[in-house]
Every structure is written in C-alpha cells, then in structure tokens.
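Minutes, project check-in
Item: structure for the 266-residue chain
Input as provided by the requester:
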Amino acid sequence: MITSLAGRKALVTGAGSGIGKATAALLLSEGADVAALDIDEAGLAELTGRVTSTSGRLISKQVDFLSAESTTAGVNAATAELGGLDILVNNVGAGIGRVFDDIDDEMWMKTLQLNFMSYVRTTRLTLPLLRESSYGSIVNNASDLARQPETVPVDYGASKAAVLALTKSLARAEGPTIRVNAVAPGPIWTPFWSKPGGFADDLAQLHNMEPQAAVEHEMKLRQLPLARLGTPEEVANVIVFLAGDLASFVTGSVWGVDGGSIRSII
C-alpha cells in the first residue's frame, strides 16, 4: 500500500489485540510513529516485537479505557511523547453475547463506557492536536451491528450505533481541517469471538462443533456472501487507507468490512 504515512504520528486505542494490533502494525510498517494504548501489557509487548529497523517509532502505554482518569493520563502522556498527532484510531471495545433481559443497568453502562465514551474522551483530548495537523484524520471502529442490529448482543450494537452518530457529527464539525470516518466490520476472528467464554464458545455449544467451525457454520446459516470470518488485517487495510492521503476526499463515511453482511443499498 502506498500511503505516504511515513513520519505521520498516530494513536491507536485497543492496540494490544485484534484489529487494533493489526492496525498499529500496519501503520508502523508504513513508517508512521505510533502510540499503541491498551490495558493488555502482554499484547503491547508482542506488538513491540514486530518493530523492525524500517518501521516507524512505537510508543506503548497501558491504559484502562473504562477509567476517565487512566484515559486522560495515558493519552496525554502518549501524545506528548509523540510530539503531536495526525491520526487517531478509536478502536478499543468489547462485547458479550447476551440477550436484552440479561443486561442490567451496570452492564449497559460498562459497555457504553468502553465502546463509546472512550471514543468521546480520547477524541476530546486529541482534537486540539489534530486541528494543528495538516493531515488530521480520525477513524472510528464501529460494527455492522450498528447498521443492522441483531438480537444479541444488543448493548454492543447500541454502543456502536452511537459511534456512527458521533462520526457523522464530528465530520461536519471538524471539516475541512480533519477528516472523520468509520469502519463497520462484520464478523472478524478477534478475541471478541475467540477468547474463552467468547461468542465462538457460545456458538460451539449451540451447534455442537469446535468454536471456529461453529462460527463458520453460523456465517453460512446467515448467508454471508463470503461465507467466512474476516481477519483483523483485512480491517486494518481499510483503516489505514482511510487514515492516509489516498482517502483525501473521504469524510463522514462508513466503510463496511463485513463480507457482505449488510444487505441494504444505503
């Protein structure tokens, strides 16, 4: 990918695993300096191991995005060390497969704090720096469930719908200085699915199969055109495209990276 991102300064939340780690790694390979933030120290350490002599500079910070205080401290320290900011990738998030009746107020608030309010806080903290950049770009990681909700997980889908509303609003408010876009991944083989007790384990019990086979079977039942899960790298490719100059006339958009899960024409 020819991105002209060498020397750009990027901050990626949730960079310790999945889509965030793949995005941080790709930005580094394109020569960008990257601040990788996550609560997962082991994941950040593994990302550090991918840095090569031709990569951009990597800064990693342990941050608990459920905490406003930890978010503020981590983001401020990371951007100070970067010496500015050109690209923000709001990616951190999680979800649990549970039906509406099983979600109490505390669970709702935890989902919204991590999947939505972390984006609000991180964006608020970094906007002054992005406004000073000649290449200001924000890419928010949403979900196909924001546009085509399923019954499970309802709180996750609602939080991601809020991310899309935030994306559209910020794109109008911050243009022409900053471009703001979102990706809406479909089913991607990340810890959301693969972790112990994750959604894949739920489907494994339902279909009496190994977890990944059960997920692939579920995709066929849903008539997903590509009939498989995506990879974090496939989403990262689109995020990095949106972050750079190749997408210089793209803002306020939602890019589906979903294997064809969204059936509407808008």
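Outcome recorded: The mean pLDDT is 93.
No further action items on this chain.
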